[in-house]
Amino acid sequence: MTLRFVGTTSDGGDCPTLYEVEGTDEILVQGDIETEPEHLAQLRDVKGTETFVRVPRKLLTRFAPRHEPPEAIPLRGRAGLHRSSRPRGG
Description:
The protein is of the alpha+beta class. The protein has three helices and five strands, in the order ββββαβαα.
């Protein structure tokens, strides 16, 4: 699967960064690994394949999708849209 760069709030190529996993509804997060024992002890239902990264809230609020993208209308379904948007009269 291909990753598409979404955005970063870091300078000089440092993390954190967001990527979209194209063809899915998933976002890949690059950031510093959480190592604070107190925080790790509070996490629930952690699988052995999971890790946790820290990212600034600013990164998520600036670049994370706020809603689902609109569903694409097939080309054959667009013809009626153009007719209804034309000005009437002469």
